[in-house]
Amino acid sequence: MRLFRAATLALGASLALAAPIAGAQAWPSKPVKIVVTFPTGGAPDILARLFSEKAQLGQPVIVDNKPGAGGNIGADIVAKSAPDGHTIVMGTVGTHSINGSVFAKMPYDMVKDFAPVSLIASTPNLLVVNNDLPVKTVQDLIAHAKANPDKLSFGSPGIGTSVHVSGELFKSMAGVKMTHVPYKGRQFAIPDLIGGQIQLMFDNMPSALPMAREGKIRAVAQTGAKRSPAAPDVPTVAESGLPGFEATSWFALFAPAGTPKEVVDKIAAEAQRIYKLPEVAERLAKLGLDPILSTPEDLAKYQAAEIAKWAKVVEESGARVE
User: Fold this and answer.
1) Higher pLDDT, residue 162 or 253
2) With contact defined as beta carbons under 8 Å apart, do 140 and 167 qualify?
3) What's the pLDDT score for residue 321?
4) Keywords of this protein's UniProt record, alphabetized (predicted)?
């Protein structure tokens, strides 16, 4: 009897240990959902839909747009989802490094509630203005803003986004006064920019560049440390009179904390395969998106550095929301 009980306990322990491994090996056992924390049309949405279109996982990959609160609503949904790899988020520099400093109360912890999967891409923001605004350079904009304090408004797809903080950083470094107007997404801000209800925006390049090329808005400068190959004729803010100015957006996949490492590694491997495809790389290049694929461990280190960097920017710019 003792031997029987011992054997039964040993078998039970073996099955308990094998269950998570079997679950990881079976992933995905149902459709995988990528939550995008902003409306359709922006860089996070484009990247998520490329993953959805090219994925070869044996199950469909569904893109689910959950915008609001600077991306916090969608990110929080994933933070509280089952840690089985079937719900992941296309995180942004805002949702996973800036918002913790901007918002006094966060519904989730940017680090503890997520398992890093892989960096995907980065992009500079593009300083674009309404065509009727009499400025063509950064120095023109600074002079115009100083001559008209608090009369210029800049839009963003939400508080805490890189688009918002880029504007706050510009205000701080240039010593100008402008009013921030947050929208529920860039698709709502752009019509107002074209119509003149707001005068400028530091939009993600993949969203703003096509509009500038069509002549609907005017590109003044880009916010990266160097010019993007997608817009070689557009100078950086730094080279236009504000040395040291840099505000780059990045996008990365995160799973809920506690997701098995085997599953995280499988998602990361699929991301590596998809975003290295020639047709995908070509599309990203045209949009001004620079692939920066990484391991989960490298993403964790990068995120930690970005949280520290943006905390300092937010403190200096006074962009915090109570």
Assistant:
1) 253
2) no
3) 73
4) Signal
**Contact 163/204 with Cβ under 8 angstroms?**
yes
CA end-to-end span of the chain: 65
**H or E stretch at 265:** helix 261-275
pLDDT of residue 250 exceeding 50, the answer is yes
Among 226, 262, 248, CA closest to 97: 248
Q: How far is it, in rounded angstroms, from Cα 285 to Cα 281?
A: 6
Q: 113 and 81 in contact (C-beta within 8 Å)?
A: no
What's the chain's Rg over C-alpha atoms?
A: 22
Domains along the chain with CATH numbers: 32-123+249-317 (3.40.190.150), 124-240 (3.40.190.10)
Query: What are the helix (H) ranges across 178-232?
Result: 186-195, 205-213
User: Residue 9, class by beta-carbon neighbours within 10 Å (0-12 exposed, 13-18 middle, 19+ buried)?
Assistant: exposed
302: buried, middle or exposed (CB in 10 Å: 19+, 13-18, 0-12)? middle
**Which residues on adjacent β-strands are paired with residue 88?**
34
For the chain, the 3-state helix, strand and coil shares in percent, each to the nearest 5, are 45, 20, 35
Give the pair of three-digit tokens for residue 293: 């694929």
Q: Are 159 and 183 in contact (CB under 8 A)?
A: no
Closest CA to 180 of 319, 35, 41: 319
